[in-house]
Amino acid sequence: MDLHFGDSKPTDEERAAVDALLGPPTSAWEGADDRTDADLRWARGGREARERRDLLLPGLHAVNDRVGWISEGALDYLCRRLTVPPAEAYGVATFYAMFAVKPRPAKVLHVCTDLACASRGSTALCADLEERLGAAGSASGGVVWQASPCLGLCERAPAALVIQAGTPADAAGAAAEPASRRYATAVIAPATAESLVRAVAAPEEAPGEPGAVMAVPQAGQPGLTLLGRVGVVDPYSIDDYRAHGGYTALRRAFDIGPAAVIREVTDAGLVGRGGAAFPTGRKWQATASQPDHPHYLVCNADESEPGTFKDRVIMEGDPYSLIEAMTIAGYAVGARRGYLYLRGEYPRALRLLRHAIDQAHARGLLGDDILGQGYAFDIEIRRGAGAYICGEETALFNSIEGYRGEPRSKPPFPVEKGLFSKPTAENNVETLINVLPILTRGAQAYAAIGTGGSTGPKLFCVSGNVERPGIYELPFGATLGELLDLAGPSATTRAILLGGAAGGFVRPDERDIPLTFEGTRAAGTTLGSGVVLVLDDTVELPRILLRIAEFFRDESCGQCVPCRVGTVRQEEALHRIVDRTGAAAADDIALLREVGRAMKDASICGLGQTAWNAIESAIDRLGAYK
User: With a cut of 50, which residues of the chain have pLDDT below it?
Assistant: First the structure.
């Protein structure tokens, strides 16, 4: 791929996919395939086109969804429309795991092989698929299957996702297309080889998903704060949402004003639920006080930490709560536009959120004059495409802007120069929906839940070898043992991973660890995003550690040397000692410690800084390889 445009031409289907997103070319020049580089440099309207670079990722999705892969001709045409150098766009397209730049079948089967699914038989499932569909990555019968990192379906492991490229349902003439030519997705979980073979044959006929309620064992129980509506209200109905207290918080926000909203959030002690635990009120205040405008709000719904699925359950089971919470946050920080960056592997959440946004618009709850208060706010969904690193806030900003999802150096911090180099408040889904009970109940009542250092309720993602996997809501301060008793752990539990792949292992006898940020820190581990993965004695711990190392190697963006090289060396060492113990593993364990320290001390972002954590805790706390 070159900096210059080539001779490849898009097919009619590829051109239609791009034009459906960007609109038809506004001039013969914009749609021409024979423009010179001088034309590009001096073209009238080039500045306006460059200002649309943030549509590069949606454009790549449009082509990939329609055709199944991104050809050189399609990429060239998209680049001409957006005035983006082809080499840069190629770098973006190849950054994401869900895109392909080489021909492949229209049907792609993603089979999760990550931690929760590995503990529930994904290795045997993949072996069975190889016999039926051929080796992973090879095309057979119009389908290609591939191993996938966590799909966020851990409560129903092992899980898989089928994506069939084709004409989108809202395109002209889509109804006349045969089913095999229409865009379709199907989630199969728990998956068997037989169910996957049936699903790839006809994705549109796959059984419907059971809904978010199946992921919430506590659904319908009294006293739930964040999960109270999941399984109770119809996620498609804005009237049902409002009948169960929806939009009460937004009305109170308008009553008290933006400064008072921030004060309530600050007094409530709300901190980020994504793992960093930064005070939300401080972030909002810092953003709101910036003189540079416009301000932006970004919701990070790209939960890609293995074992994490709480945000998916909220978006599928109570989508209007997120729309309301984003509107309140935008009002507080002075933003007129919010971006919801959603995992590309969450098709059901995407449908529900799009519907919720449309309904909010129709009812005057989004748009130019919300509830007649003179406040204008809108939400735009941007789909991720399979890149764990985009969970880092500045990498996410780069992804939205149409660049590779690589983290930026700090300072400047996002509250000063974030999305489009403007002041930006970024929060994840769980953090945002906590704002609703703060405003409806008051900061003091909210702060009375939990502990002094960790206030409010917390969602925990319990998976692995338990009887009742799912999302659990408990007040901060509950113990690990109390959570495990709700989920029904295996009698032969060997290890518990807290915080996901970036977290740490604890022993099954450490049941008294308080589930708070300060409590887990004092115990020498981390709460992270709330992952609690239980492993019993049927799971080979060295292979789980190897999978963690493979995950970080695959997901490293490669920008900084400590992470780019360190994650490779870490995986190599774990391959060497996967079947070794004692003195035979000692040299490589010493090497792992040295590499781990280098990654922790010198990596540019949290991915490299935490890539060694779980492995280190397994060696030191669980006695792995002894």
Answer: 29, 35-46
Half-sphere exposure of residue 202: CA atoms within 13 angstroms, side-chain side: 7
> How far is the C-alpha of 615 from the C-alpha of 626, rounded, in Å?
14
Residue type, position 614, single letter? A
Cross-strand bridge partners of residue 109: 145, 162
Report the amino acid identity of residue 508.
Answer: P
Q: Are 532 and 493 in contact (CB under 8 A)?
A: no
The answer to whether the beta carbons of residues 129 and 289 sit under 8 Å apart is no
Output the six-digit token pair for 615: 């492995």
Place of tokens 């851990």: 154
The reported pLDDT for the residue numbered 43 is 39
Q: Which of 443, 488, 438, 444 is nearest to 462 (CA)?
A: 488
Report pLDDT digits (tens) over 541-573. Answer: 999 999 999 999 999 999 999 999 999 999 999
**Strand order through the sheet with 184-188:** 139-140, 143-148, 107-112, 160-164, 184-188
Nearest to 156 by CA among 212, 206, 194: 212
CA distances (Å), 320 to each of 357, 361, 496, 543, in order? Answer: 8, 12, 34, 41
**Residue ranges of the alpha helices (H) in 181-243?**
193-201, 238-243
Contact 515, 483 (CB under 8 A): yes
Residue 23 burial by Cβ neighbours in a 10 Å radius (0-12, 13-18, 19+): exposed
- Whether 343 contacts 388, CB under 8 Å: no
d(CA 29, CA 46): 11
First to last CA, the chain: 49
Rounded CA-CA distance 318/76 in Å is: 40
Task: Number of helices (H) and strands (E) in the chain: give both, helices first.
Answer: 28, 14
Instruction: Tell me which amino acid residue 339 is.
Output: Y
Q: Which residue has the tokens 């549109």?
A: 204
Q: Give residue 172's pLDDT.
A: 72
Q: How many whole angstroms separate alpha carbon 506 and alpha carbon 237?
A: 42
